[in-house]
Amino acid sequence: MECIITLWQICCRSLTFSSSSSSIAIDPAAGAAEDVDIPPPQEKYDVFISFRGEDTRLGVTSHLHAALLHEKIETYIDYRLHRGEEIGPGILEAIEKSRLSVIIFSKNYASSTRCLDELVHIIKCKQRYGQMVIPVFYDINPSDVRKQRGSYADAFAALDKRFKDSIDKVHKWRDALTTAANLSGFDYSNNSGTEADLIVKVVDHIWTELNGESSSILECLVGIGSSIEQIESLLDIHSQDACITVGIWGMAGIGKTTLSQVVFHRLAYKFEASCFLRNVREHSERTNGLDHLKKVLLREILKEEGLSLGSTLIQERLSRTKVLIVLDDVSDSMQMERLVGNRLWCGTGSRIIITSRDRGIIRQTVKEDKIYEVEGLKPDDALELFCSRAFKNNSTRRTDYMELAEKAVDYAEGIPLALVLLGSTFLNCKRKEEWEDELNKLKQFPNENIRRVLRLNYDELTRNDKEIFLDIACYFKGNHVDDSSC
């Protein structure tokens, strides 16, 4: 069993990985929000659209909805015709479970108590959960909404009479209008361009807001900033080259998939279409697995089912589309060839990201200067990631157990997945004696989950390489790799 541990250590030290460069590790716990009196509901939608159906249902609202769907932004919109004025619980839940709300203020928006109730709940969610809100003033002056003038004054004159016995409700509607109209938004009038221009601006802004929210989470991720910058520099998305392919290379558990996901979500909105294909190796081992992935790829890019690259028309459509594609966990050059072998079908400015544990495979498609090596975490980052899992928010216990934590981190050799798994294991240890017992067990019996992941690196070696690898591991058993006396 000690030989297995030594093999792992040799793998970490001698194959490709050191702690000299920046690397990536995701820590879900570190990104947790500050405690609040009432926790926000789990998000289900990206965007909720509030609008006056009779004013904009068949116009700007439908165009905005279509544009958001085209960008794969999950959007809730209620197109049903309602006989009554009461807002249903389903609408309230949709508002609460949306990351962002768009309010399309039209001339008759305030004449609908249902719209006003939606607005009150949207503002409540903004104040309570920090939900983002974007107002769009469609053929209405923002000051008329803010001060309830013009058609809004007429609407409230009727509401004051109708709800004279429950005037507090009317005051809430007025306050919500004032609050929303004071937010930064979009003012559209007949002399401010076309509706198409408006839609582009609104969708771009929504993308920026949603992406900015994701970026704020990245600040809590361990060791990821520099890696993202380097990958994005290699992608050079401002270049108008026909297509650039970037490779992300590293051992299993080092963070290749996480890094590619983050970059993908940060940049996808800058492309006309995008597709992230996970676990290419796993899919390729199934019958017709690559054929299925190719269909998924075409469907995601062209938004249609049952397409084939054999069609000249399809190839022409693809050649006019700027795409971002990620092929995650590629293990054979045939997989790349079958999926994106002929990159001429990609439109100008397209980008392809390939992740793999085998640098030789990436080299067959990617230029050497476009390959990014993901390396182990630096000691300080490794300790931070481990502690965030092992101690959660217990800072006092974290201080008392630091010496033991450093031993566990040393065992993980800077591998993010190993640090996360070990941290979760030690989280259940309440006393120092239990920590010491776990550390002693690790010396004799490696963590099975970690061993299973690291085994993938060994299994993909050729037979000759495996024999050499085992010889080296056994030779250095109990010794440091850099020991010159060996």
Structural account:
It is a single chain. The chain has a five-stranded parallel sheet, sandwiched between helices. A five-stranded parallel sheet has the order 7-8-9-6-10, sandwiched between helices. Helix 5 (113-129) crosses helix 8 (167-181) and helix 17 packs across helix 19. It folds into three domains: 45-209, Toll/interleukin-1 receptor homology (TIR) domain (Rossmann fold); 224-373, Rossmann fold (3-Layer(aba) Sandwich), CATH 3.40.50; 379-475, no CATH class. With 486 residues, it is of the alpha/beta class. It starts with a helix and ends in an 11-residue tail after the last helix. 52% of the residues lie in helices and 11% in strands. Mean pLDDT is 79; it is low at 1-39.
Key phrases:
Rossmann fold; 5-stranded parallel β-sheet; 486 residues; 3 domains; single chain; alpha/beta
Short synopsis of the structure:
With 486 residues, the protein is an alpha/beta fold. It has helices at residues 2-15, 53-56, 60-70, 89-96, 113-129, 142-147, 151-162, 167-181, 195-218, 225-235, 256-267, 280-284, 289-302, 312-319, 333-340, 359-363, 379-390, 395-400, 402-412, 416-427, 432-444, 448-459, 463-475; strands at residues 45-50, 75-76, 98-105, 132-138, 186-188, 243-249, 273-277, 323-327, 350-356, 371-373. It folds into three domains: 45-209, Rossmann fold (3-Layer(aba) Sandwich); 224-373, Rossmann fold (3-Layer(aba) Sandwich), CATH 3.40.50.300; 379-475, no CATH class.
